[in-house]
Amino acid sequence: MRIGIIGGSGYTGVELLRLLCVRNDVEVVFISSRAHAGKAVTEQFPSLRGHIDLTFSDPDKIGETPCDLVFFATPNGTAMHQALALLDKGVKVIDLSADFRIKDVAVWEQWYAQEHASVALIEKAVYGLPELFRDQIREAELVANPGCYPTAVQLGFLPLLEAGIVDSQSLIADVKSGISGAGRGASVPTLMAEASDSFKAYGVAGHRHLPEIEQGLALMSASPVSLTFTPHLLPIIRGIHATLYARLTAEVDLQAMFEKRFKDEPFVDVLPEGSHPETRSVKGTNMCRIAVHRPQNRQTAVILVVEDNLVKGAAGQAIQNMNLMLGLAETTGLQQPALMP
Amino acid sequence: MRIGIIGGSGYTGVELLRLLCVRNDVEVVFISSRAHAGKAVTEQFPSLRGHIDLTFSDPDKIGETPCDLVFFATPNGTAMHQALALLDKGVKVIDLSADFRIKDVAVWEQWYAQEHASVALIEKAVYGLPELFRDQIREAELVANPGCYPTAVQLGFLPLLEAGIVDSQSLIADVKSGISGAGRGASVPTLMAEASDSFKAYGVAGHRHLPEIEQGLALMSASPVSLTFTPHLLPIIRGIHATLYARLTAEVDLQAMFEKRFKDEPFVDVLPEGSHPETRSVKGTNMCRIAVHRPQNRQTAVILVVEDNLVKGAAGQAIQNMNLMLGLAETTGLQQPALMP
Amino acid sequence: MRIGIIGGSGYTGVELLRLLCVRNDVEVVFISSRAHAGKAVTEQFPSLRGHIDLTFSDPDKIGETPCDLVFFATPNGTAMHQALALLDKGVKVIDLSADFRIKDVAVWEQWYAQEHASVALIEKAVYGLPELFRDQIREAELVANPGCYPTAVQLGFLPLLEAGIVDSQSLIADVKSGISGAGRGASVPTLMAEASDSFKAYGVAGHRHLPEIEQGLALMSASPVSLTFTPHLLPIIRGIHATLYARLTAEVDLQAMFEKRFKDEPFVDVLPEGSHPETRSVKGTNMCRIAVHRPQNRQTAVILVVEDNLVKGAAGQAIQNMNLMLGLAETTGLQQPALMP
Amino acid sequence: MRIGIIGGSGYTGVELLRLLCVRNDVEVVFISSRAHAGKAVTEQFPSLRGHIDLTFSDPDKIGETPCDLVFFATPNGTAMHQALALLDKGVKVIDLSADFRIKDVAVWEQWYAQEHASVALIEKAVYGLPELFRDQIREAELVANPGCYPTAVQLGFLPLLEAGIVDSQSLIADVKSGISGAGRGASVPTLMAEASDSFKAYGVAGHRHLPEIEQGLALMSASPVSLTFTPHLLPIIRGIHATLYARLTAEVDLQAMFEKRFKDEPFVDVLPEGSHPETRSVKGTNMCRIAVHRPQNRQTAVILVVEDNLVKGAAGQAIQNMNLMLGLAETTGLQQPALMP
User: Fold this and answer.
1) Distance (Å, rounded) from C-alpha A329 to C-alpha A312?
2) What residues contact C166, with CB distance under 8 A and at least 6 apart?
3) Domain boundaries, position D253
4) Is B173 helix (H, G, I), strand (E, B) or coil?
């Protein structure tokens, strides 16, 4: 299988390379970077020396390289201009950006502050959360890969909302993300001298992942959903930790419910009762680990979720989707244990 | 004024030294460490070379050194055995541990898993949160210095609960603390190879600061209080960030209310609307910075609070209390700006 | 092939597990930890959940479990007591500790401050640096796996000393190690609050790796060797960076010499001229990357070497040796690219 | 005394503010930032809220604000255009950039790749290392404040070269700097996701501080000097650690020599024999701590030097110079102990 990557100089692009370059069943044949076109990939990323022999191409050259599947690891607003041409040639597409995640065009345009360039494709796109849409993904031509925060938050609330045992109107997600989630662009706030040895919330008034998460939660819930979503910037490189709060409206064995819901999921691990998952326990892997708490046996459930924002929150989940779309075993290439310590 | 410190080899002890050693109006004349007795303080703490010329003493020698005021920077369960003898001699006492914080002895004994050795002093002790008990602190002989988490959480909820404009039964405090909060004892989970570049919650089932915080919140609130409190371990050295959630039950101008409540407080800084305080903005200082949000104009208020856990959360607040107890200007020795970057 | 690991609760032990658990050609059948005997490995190391189903055993039980090869990932002074019994049963042994690294017993006993318990085995042991002793390792029954610092320093000086083009009596190795090199034992100096956001040298007066390195360098050099070795503690988890200085005594093309010397080595990568290798470029991998400089075209060569102290500096090199000893392809299981970022 | 700061939005500028804003004897009356002109300083730096009430001005407005002394905390190549006008008005000037540090114009122009705009002032400028040029600084109108690396390296080699007891032609300085040394400009290599949890050398072929250091060392030495200088990037915010190597040519008591040379220096602290200074022991302070070693009693002296690159390596030393130039006590405002932990 021949794979292309548009947008190969950011963290999700190089993470796709890291995960794909050791495989024999697929081959990355194209990778683009407008800034580095013509240069060896290993010049930018010496960690890949000996693993890959590609040169960055101009993204416009994708049409000249036959591919079975193309990933967009581009900023928001790029894939919506280029996806159609590829789909028309029979190339499958996975977009890691936000272009096709939100079904309501008006909502998308409000939060992303631009006109959508490919409205017809929005409906066609399948939301790439395999735990919810595995069958549709297998048949999809275009997959909208979920955001990093939305993956963690949706997986954590999923059993509670499907079961209808919480007040879906007062959900709270207090979520902390490692700094690679901010991307590889030069900026003052993400300098090491600014962001390390410190911690802050950001985007409390409104973050683009809020509508994406609420759209997903609404699909799981019989009753209307309202979420308070507070993202924070963690001084770690990789990892998201979501601390989720929901008011219980019924008495159930939460631990058993979570274990049952995810028992066949290869990339969701429900920890034993009383656990506190660490982000490092999934560093570099596609695993999402969840712990379920009900402090003081009061009415608030506290769900702890960790994932690697660049893997299950981005490139790993995209490859999980690729495996499904190409008819390969879903877990192929995604089974290395975490780097610890 | 002559000052003694019992327990001088931990982080709160050495922080007291750092803040006191540059002052002319008070002098540290005694500092104890059972393990290092007889050794120069600067051997353990070379950062104090040139600033202090003390030798660690055995804690039992405190009786031989006349002091006006003694700090206990000891583990829980120590001050309750030694405070009475000092008070009887007319020495004022500030306990940085938890021994005198909780008024209900049974609750204290349950959470701290030991019998209380000095029940009579509990009532006598004044809770050292100046923003609430300034006048009593001025007159106090024994001050129970608040915990690091309780300081941040109580200050953040204070205006909301005093005004009675939130549902006091569904309060949530999602709090993140730097690793110095875990103390200076050797332990595997706080090794750098374990705790850095990672993040986790802990004590979700129940943390000792929960009853202390609920006791404080109850005093502010006309209606009963219930709090979900989730502590997390941040990979930073100093700093606490509390993200507080409360359901609004009335329409008020939150920003104006917070600004008014704290306008005369020297160590509480309400940031402009839309702000996101960073822990580093208070690193090394006694300042607590607060930002007030109401995301999407929905019904949940989100209050962001930062403090340095070793200063406003421990040694700095203790010195603020000392200043009050000794009739000095409250802010003396606590006005250095934060170290940034 | 059946593999045993003595000492499975430290960082080198769990790193062996991480690298071996995904392989089909070898199986870890025994892992010991006196402290955790009887408990599941994944309780200590949740990152291995789903990858391994072993329980820690008492180390004394190794005799009851048939193995083809046993790793000692134990503190110094343990393997020398247990290796002989295994060897006598035909089990191959790789010792990751220092017990069999130094050929001169008196030197070993001086630096390790104990009597050597198995002098006869010292001569039998092959020093496990494949770039120097590949053929002997293939035939070895007992391999002394090199220390982390010695691997980096020896590989960096190797071409210079073999060629005899530097003053071998004034060598300098200024080496910086990540904190995992200090092990997983609880201690104050390696706490995150002590070691992060700081940097220091240690052991400047004399470090145990000095005699090991000088022994190795002497074997490469026709003239006597003297090394100044300064280890430093880096506030990173994994990684060693050696900065090596040598006075040139002849004019040669250093870059070409290094490239030629290592061109067939699977785990030594000589970077293009002018490069500065980053420790992260080898994070989690068995690769050693080297850059060669001659600043200002003066007489001092500056060689930069990076490795992951837990992989090429410990567990990875041990597995490279295992592959050789068991007749497997040398690079098996060691070909994942580094985790970046 | 009225103080101006040109270039107030970088790390040295804000560090000047942090150190000056608590003083009563001097007042910062002007601070410039072209990008933030018209905005409150505390908007950029909330850590200074409550400490300073200034607004950033356009740098060209400095002429309109009477000042006794002006600091240039600007990029290289700025002060040389603006200093003369200020000096002509009788304003004293301290330049924290490199414009006036190197006496040989040709050398400066080669390393800084531009024509020097104010050659006449170079000779007039006094090099602001008080340990060498205290008397000249007292009389100076223009001080060239030393670079961060040059301060540490020169202070460490000073007693050895003055005494003429080392081979001055084979000096080596292996120096590691915290990332704030790279400044506050947005750039990919200094992003936290790139620079944290990693380590590398840089500029090995030639760094601009090499000629500055060699110029200084030559002044101390009776014989010609040649230095190999290797800078490295440390994943810490503040701090420089210099590890210096020199071949001894005479037998002396190094410890005694260093203690004697610096015994009257307020900001150089020679540690007891066998010490290993940590960068954190000087975090936020103007202190330089030095330890002296002679490993294995061989012929190489190893000198360990730590300083805070933003204080003794920049703003603190500049204020030390300011105190001297204004006839104030040299240590005024520079006596806070380090932030620890």
Assistant:
1) 17
2) C160, C246, C247, C248, C249, C301
3) 148-309
4) strand
What integer pLDDT is reported at residue A113 of this predicted model?
Answer: 96
Which of chain D's residues have a Cβ under 8 Å away from the Cβ of A235? 192, 196
CB contact under 8 A, C184 and B184: no
Written as six digits, the tokens of C100 are 């069999």
Which of A110, A204, A236 to mutate against chain B (most B CBs within 10 Å)?
A204
Nearest CB neighbour to B298, from listed A226, A274, A277? A226
| Whole-structure pTM value | 0.97
> Per the domain annotation, does B99 fall within a domain?
yes
**pLDDT-based confidence at residue D195 (cuts at 50, 70, 90):** very high
Q: What is the CA radius of gyration of chain A?
A: 20
The domain that holds B213 is classified in CATH as 3.30.360.10
Average of per-residue pLDDT across D257-271: 98
Quote the CA–CA distance of C273 and B68 in Å, as a whole number: 67
**Token pair for C230:** 């300064």
Single out the catalytic residue among D21, D67, D148, D288. D148
Distance CA C165, CA A244 (A): 64
pLDDT at C33: 96
CB-based contacts of B260: which residues, under 8 Å, 6+ apart? none
The ipTM, to two decimals, is 0.97
The total number of residues written for chain D in this structure: 341
Answer whether C296's CB lies under 8 Å from C127's CB.
Answer: no
Nearest Cα residue to A315 out of A184, A175, A148, A183:
A148
**Interface contact flag, D237 C197, Cβ < 8 Å:** yes
User: What distance in Å separates the CA atoms of residue B158 and residue B176, rounded to the nearest whole number?
Assistant: 19
User: Does residue C296 sit in the same domain as residue C154?
Assistant: yes
What was the pLDDT predicted at D317?
Answer: 98
B176: chain A residues, CB-CB within 8 Å? 176, 199, 232
Q: Active-site residue numbers of B?
A: 148
Could you give the CA distance from residue A309 to residue A282 in angstroms, rounded to a whole number?
Answer: 10
Residue D114 belongs to some domain of the structure = yes
* A75 confidence band (pLDDT: 50, 70, 90): very high
- Using a CB–CB cut-off of 8 Å, the residues of C that contact B are 11, 178-180, 182, 184-188, 190-197, 235, 237
Interchain pair A179, D193: CB under 8 A? yes
Is residue B263 in some structural domain?
yes
Check CB contact under 8 Å for D193 and A182. Answer: yes
Name the residue in chain D with its Cα closest to that of C239: D198
CB contact under 8 Å between D192 and A190, yes or no, is yes
| Averaged pLDDT of chain D | 97
Count of A–B CB contacts within 8 Å?
Answer: 138
Q: Are residues B294 and B156 in the same domain?
A: yes
How far apart are alpha carbons A104 and A106 in whole angstroms? Answer: 6
